[in-house]
């Protein structure tokens, strides 16, 4: 037995397997996931695993490595989030989201930091040695809402799109603020004296970190789009580029101390429309599927590891400090949302209702990012207290808030997401209004979002598309694209329902000839049906009718670099067109 | 700049990116890949990269780590090979393949080992210190035909199916022999004296390694199939299980010193039919696509690394030994094929022609497996000589044999692979003959392959399918399955060619009403067509006709754990059936 040799990949595979099996297990009992969010169940599995490891080894189970978390587990989730981000509501509410993410997070950091410093002054709690700077450092890591936890809970409760994007967008974009404040306070902790220059440098750094992330992300995203222009002959590696470039954008941003999360989101949103146009349908299915799969596994692993890492002896249980941390997290978030929303509502027609405000405040879940950051703290006396407080805050928000938010949403009758997507009619009207508003803004000289959107669209179709898209003739209208997509879906459904049998298969029969010949077939059937089992007959008839035309193309010659049936449809479409022309 | 922190994933990503871009680069110039096999080009890229690294650092570039090769690069390629293995020709020729793989490889090992030992006795070459055991050890690593190299070349030349499976199957299954002989000679080298018991233990070990690999693989494969029974509610992680279980089978086999390659092939072939029946169509596309993508990247990386590792100062250039190694590799392979084929042809009606024999002998390419094994050798005086000889043999076979095999195949007019797949008619006849032969074998009491195949099929449908398949009612005939597949493909093609517009969309119109109503539509069209642009009219008509029925299902509510459009088709099919019944 040579376990040493295969240990690393074997254990990684086993952890992923455990995560996947846990997921299957929950979904076998349909009632469970509808009551308790999956994240809670996974943490619970983690707690049990941790307990078993602790019981067997009699020492603390391994803690989730911060490097593993930030380098391998977080990127797939953020990539998935960025790639499937509904861009319209995101950009419509970008101002509000940024306000929550930047001002709200800073508000929370300082609020929690200063209030906890106040608590530390109470002599009965024996916490006088925790300095203000340490409290602020702790505040900077505990204040940030966690995208992984938010996603896990909010995707199950289906609140309306605007509410979802507000909480989710905030959780993604506050990364830049968290990175800056955390690193700032950490370096302050190690400095002998703090000058006012350092504070200003910190403020400047925030813009560098955020905008730098966007820049890195967009650069890689557009490069990815450009690369997929040239993959026509080698379809099989197309999906790879989506993953490689977005991961590179994340790593590059991290390397330069920029916000990796912001970079990967900018990359994913930047490349999406061009990549989708360039790559084949199957490649696109693979990209989407694999992204979902990967992020799903990643967040399962994160929650399990959260549970595992909770068990052990890393904690200092100073309950007053811990309890006040939870309370201050709740209070300052609620206050922050109230105050910021007050300002937001003054400038918007479409206001955020008080119900929505409550859900935004209540949905501020903390998760694995805080957890990884607290372990990355430099060693000092009270680190274990901070770890304990962070663990309790995470468990409180995920378990208590995570399980009660669904009943609360029901109770408050918060506006839900509409079940069906907008109809074509609605979509036409939305587009029409966009054009109209862009025109109005242009005439009135107001540089609003519609004006900029229109300019961007113009720039896109005039320059970007020509560089980044493979077959650039004319921009296909989104309605035509939607129509093609629906057609394809419908065709598959028809085929699966066995309806296609009645579609004329030989194209020359289509226009006129088909009707007569089909009539004749129907008549002949009538006589035969008495003699034969009708089901069998239908089967035979279908097979004969269709295979006459198509059977010589059952499969192309096998080649490693092309997938079967990859180049066929185009040729076939041409053939159909030629036959059609002859028929006319 | 914090490069240290992200170094590992960053460099891995960059290598993969380089490999992918190299692949794109070759395919941009269409003529290049048709003359030179891709493997040669990639080694060439690797040589240039290695030269650059050597020139810049003035020290040998990093050598491909054997662990990385065996644990991370080889499994995807073998999985891809096993999953897409054409099982019928494989099992039809399993006897011949095993004879080549086992007896042929042993023949080559001893032939090359003893002849090289003879060369070492020539005093002029100054090689007297290379013992017989070392020569045999070298023979054991240089004798084995490499699946990666064979795949890369043979998939581009499209020889007939039998010839392909003979060379390819041999290259896969000889792994068990190589593992045993290599480890045996290695341990003999370290032993003070060799007893005859050890030799017999070696022979016994071969069966353990090979059959153990099959057993481990099948166990994991069937477990994978069983697991996918329960993934109906969580489609998104289905593809994961295919990869996880096959990788686990490989690692487990390696852990117990069994043949990992044989295990992963058994796993892939064992799970394929059940997994395909259980998972959704999209999951299956993802599995296929990702497997192809992964193996494609892996073999690109392997060839690039081969090139990089060639540059440097790891070599001892004793040209007589090196040249004789190349010559003996060629001679012993040719002799082996001739002798073994002579015996094979005596027992088969369908003989292997002399042209085929030549291609089998000529197609015995060596590759990265030898290369990794030679670096795994324990350090001794002449290791660098072995490394040099291995490098030259690999480069010779890949470059000289790899580039000339295509012209030779053309010149000899070797029977090519038929371009089109068998028609339904042919498939029916093949199945019919299978049944007939199974019956004849049963009656005559001959336990031939058809008899066993029939028994296995019976066992499969009576027990295995009931345990492993989700919806087990009745085994769907393969013709019905093929028909469904063709239908689906046809439907997509129709939709893409815009032909679906003429298919009746409202199901109640289908049976009788449709013909009349369609007649009327055609008539009405005639009048309208004069007034309106016919293309526009057709578009409007199509959009109206189809969207009436389908538009309310544009997209389901977004949920993280299901992909859009996953559960829809079933409901839709039901709806269609209900409407149909009403219409009758």
From TrEMBL, chains A, B:
Gene3D superfamilies: 6.10.140.1330, 6.10.250.1040, 6.10.250.2020. One of its GO terms (biological process) is sodium ion import across plasma membrane. It is a multi-pass membrane protein. One of its GO terms (cellular component) is basolateral plasma membrane. InterPro entries: Cation/H_exchanger_CPA1 (IPR018422), Cation/H_exchanger_TM (IPR006153), NaH_exchanger (IPR004709), NHE-1-like (IPR001970), NHE_CaM-bd (IPR032103). Residues 529-582 form the Sodium/hydrogen exchanger regulatory region domain. It is found in: Basolateral cell membrane. This is Sodium/hydrogen exchanger. It comes from Oceanodroma tethys (Wedge-rumped storm-petrel). The gene is Slc9a2_1.
């Amino acid at each position: 037995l040579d376990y040493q040799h295969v240990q690393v990949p074997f254990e990684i595979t086993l952890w992923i397997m455990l995560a996947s099996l846990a997921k299957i297990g929950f979904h076998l009992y349909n009632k469970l996931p509808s009551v308790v969010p999956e994240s809670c169940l996974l943490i619970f599995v983690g707690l049990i695993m941790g307990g078993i490891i602790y019981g067997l080894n009699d020492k603390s189970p391994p803690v989730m490595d911060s490097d593993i978390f930030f380098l391998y587990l977080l990127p797939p989730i953020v990539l998935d989030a960025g790639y499937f981000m509904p861009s319209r509501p995101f950009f419509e509410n970008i101002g509000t989201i940024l306000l929550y993410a930047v001002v709200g997070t800073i508000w929370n950091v300082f609020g929690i930091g200063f209030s906890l410093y106040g608590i530390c002054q109470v002599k009965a709690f024996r916490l006088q040695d925790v300095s203000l700077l340490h409290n602020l450092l702790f505040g900077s890591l505990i204040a940030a809402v966690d995208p992984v936890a938010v996603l896990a809970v909010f995707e199950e409760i289906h609140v309306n799109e605007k509410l979802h994007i507000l909480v989710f967008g905030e959780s993604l974009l506050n990364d830049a603020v968290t990175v800056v404040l955390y690193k700032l306070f950490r370096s302050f902790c190690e400095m002998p004296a703090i000058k006012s220059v350092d504070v200003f440098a910190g403020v400047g750094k925030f813009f560098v970190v955020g905008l730098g992330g966007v820049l890195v992300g967009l650069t890689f995203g557009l490069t990815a789009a450009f690369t997929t222009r040239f993959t026509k002959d080698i379809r099989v590696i197309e999906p790879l580029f989506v993953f490689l470039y977005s991961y590179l954008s994340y790593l590059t941003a991290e390397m330069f101390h920029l916000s990796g999360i912001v970079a990967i989101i900018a990359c994913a949103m930047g490349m999406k429309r061009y990549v989708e146009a360039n790559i084949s349908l199957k490649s696109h299915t693979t990209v989407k599927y694999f992204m979902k799969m990967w992020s799903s596994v990643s967040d399962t692993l994160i929650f399990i590891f959260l549970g595992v890492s909770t068990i052990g002896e890393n904690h200092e249980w100073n309950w007053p400090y811990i309890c006040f941390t939870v309370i201050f997290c709740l209070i300052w978030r609620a206050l922050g949302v109230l105050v910021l929303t007050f300002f937001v509502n003054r400038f918007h027609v479409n206001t955020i209702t008080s119900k929505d405000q409550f859900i935004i405040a209540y949905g501020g879940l903390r998760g694995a990012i805080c957890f990884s950051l607290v372990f990355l703290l430099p060693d000092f006396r009270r680190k274990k207290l901070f770890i304990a407080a962070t663990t309790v805050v995470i468990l409180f928000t995920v378990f208590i808030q995570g399980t009660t938010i669904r009943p609360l949403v029901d109770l408050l009758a918060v506006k839900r997401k509409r079940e069906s997507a907008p109809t074509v009619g609605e979509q036409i009207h939305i587009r029409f209004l966009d054009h109209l508003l862009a025109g109005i803004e242009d005439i009135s000289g107001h540089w609003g979002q519609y004006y900029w959107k229109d300019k961007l669209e113009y720039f896109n179709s005039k320059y970007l598309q020509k560089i980044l898209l493979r077959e650039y003739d004319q921009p296909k209208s989104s309605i035509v694209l939607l129509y093609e997509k629906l057609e394809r879906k419908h065709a598959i459904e028809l085929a699966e329902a066995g309806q296609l049998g009645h579609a004329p298969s030989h194209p020359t029969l289509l226009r006129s000839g088909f009707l007569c010949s089909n009539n004749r077939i129907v008549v002949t059937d009538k006589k035969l049906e008495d003699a034969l089992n009708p089901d069998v007959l239908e089967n035979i008839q279908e097979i004969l009718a269709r295979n006459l035309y198509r059977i010589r193309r059952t499969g192309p010659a096998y080649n490693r670099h092309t997938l079967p049936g990859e180049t066929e449809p185009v040729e076939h479409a041409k053939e159909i067109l030629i036959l059609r022309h002859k028929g006319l």
